[in-house]
Amino acid sequence: MTFFSILFALLIEQLKPLRADNPVYAGARALAAQIERSFNAGQAHQGRLAWLLMILAFTVPVALLYWIAIKIGILAVLILNVLVVYLTLGFRHYSHFFTSIQLALNNGDEATARSLLGEWTRRDTAGMDASEVARIAVETALITTHRNVFGVFFWMLTPLGPIGAVMYRVAEYLARIWNEPGATAEREAFGRFASKAFYWIDWIPVRLTAAAFAVVGNFEDAIYAWRNFAARWQDEAIGIILSSGGGAMGIRLGAPAEVAADIIPSDAGIVDSINIETEAPLGEEASVRALQSTVGLVWRALLLWMFLVLLLSIASWLG
């Protein structure tokens, strides 16, 4: 059931991609903003309550529909699952940015590539060269694919089914929108629980995605980079995804210069700064070719996930 739900949703999305500004997502953004305005007074416990209300606002209706679908029959369950997966997956949400950036760089149009990257990532891209544009595009693609595809896959496979998929996507959105860079101290306290909650919700999916990148890419380099360089990122999940993905493709990801304070916590004691600065990740600098490598890695990882989902579905049928 889960395999066909994901397969049909992927096929539908290929034929008719769900726009990022669709009414469902717009409603979620509006509700999250309203809840934040109503509850945010700079206290951590208010953030916990707001997060719980937002999660329940989406998971309770899905749970009710899921219960009704089970009562109706297997076809109703399949239809509901396909609808939920279609709405929670984002395999094609931002692919037009990545494809357009790849095309612009292939044509030597760095200005257009920088403009597209800035629109996609909402960061200042002025002055970036082609290598830096390619690197950031690769990093954004890997992180987006994990959170919009593979994380949804994992929670769809749990006993929660569509409820888990909805919970994951809402939790990911809240962790991102309530912890935007440059937030005030009041908002930092409010969004702290959303960030911690998503860390644990995403703990297993992140490692499964990294393992998938290793299996379908250069296994030894992916595992080596994961073990030795993931800590260079302040966000552990991002570090695992990018280090394993970069190692799998033989590409160095992350900022070209790291400082000790960003790599090791300040309470870790004396740091051997020489080793930190000279021990560089394996691989080449990101280039235009890295974009094509990323497409191949993501598709191979997707096929691996689908194969595992099929095996699990067959095992459940036989059981």
From TrEMBL:
Location relative to the cell: Cell membrane
Pathways per UniProt: Cofactor biosynthesis; adenosylcobalamin biosynthesis
Major localization class: membrane
Biological process according to GO: cobalamin biosynthetic process
Keyword terms: Cell membrane, Cobalamin biosynthesis, Membrane, Transmembrane, Transmembrane helix
One GO CC annotation: plasma membrane
Membrane topology: Multi-pass membrane protein
Record InterPro entries: Cobalamin_biosynth_CobD/CbiB
UniProt keyword Membrane present: yes
Gene Ontology MF: a single term: ABC-type vitamin B12 transporter activity
Listed transmembrane segments: 49-68, 75-94, 152-171, 297-318
Function (record text): Converts cobyric acid to cobinamide by the addition of aminopropanol on the F carboxylic group.
Family label: Belongs to the CobD/CbiB family.
Protein name: Cobalamin biosynthesis protein CobD
Encoding gene, per UniProt annotation: cobD
